[in-house]
Design brief:
four-stranded mixed beta sheet, about 15% helix, 10 strands, alpha+beta, globular, about 200 residues
Length: about 200
């Protein structure tokens, strides 16, 4: 798994010591080329390979709003996604819904195609976000308005800045810890320019 290409939500086990790591909304906003709200129209599980990228699902969607990146040539786009432990149902459950997506641009000629930046946390159902929109403030955003406002502000703060990946250990008594807890420690990945106290690695 290469964290430079999609949001990281991976469980590492060393004996009985487990670490759960996830990308924050802030890191998603920084790393993704395109951040947008789309309406998912169909989902097909199929293998696709383009150069070094391999996906397991093809998602047809319509762009509703773009927060970051160029407006596509057509509102109807294709999104490619790997299927990890949640499986294809996570996409199928979003058909007909508005979804915030963090994407890498792949091709934009006759048809614009993108890959999801993180195959676990790179899409957030705005009708029912649950605890997926995790912030470096150790909270999670709870509704469409909160999420859209936070993403807009975050992209504005990050514009023109160069950031490195930083790690924040999630305190036990926070919303983010409750959402991520799966073992001994939880970490969020954040842009260091917004969180100077973030460390280069896990402590």
């Amino acid at each position: 798994m290469n964290p430079a290409f999609y949001l990281l939500s991976v469980l590492l086990s060393v004996g009985t010591f487990e670490i759960n790591i996830a990308n924050s909304v802030e890191w998603n906003c920084y790393e993704a080329n395109t951040v947008a709200v789309v309406k998912v129209t169909s989902v097909q599980e199929e293998k696709f390979k383009l150069m070094d990228y391999e996906s397991d699902a093809t998602i047809d969607a319509t762009i509703i709003q773009t927060f970051k990146g160029m407006e596509p040539l057509t509102k109807n786009i294709i999104i490619y996604s790997r299927l990890t432990y949640i499986g294809g149902e996570k996409w199928k459950n979003m058909i007909g819904k508005e979804v915030l997506v963090f994407m890498k641009d792949m091709i934009c000629e006759r048809q614009c195609a993108y890959s999801i930046f993180d195959d676990d946390y790179g899409m957030i159902n705005l009708d029912a976000p649950g605890s997926r929109a995790l912030t470096g403030k150790f909270t999670y955003l709870k509704n469409k308005t909160e999420i859209n406002d936070y993403v807009t502000d975050c992209i504005k703060k990050l514009k023109g800045k160069t950031a490195k990946r930083g790690f924040l250990e999630v305190p036990f008594d926070t919303e983010a810890h409750g959402a991520l807890y799966a073992g001994s420690s939880c970490y969020l990945i954040v842009p260091d320019v917004l969180y100077p106290k973030a460390t280069e690695g896990m402590r």
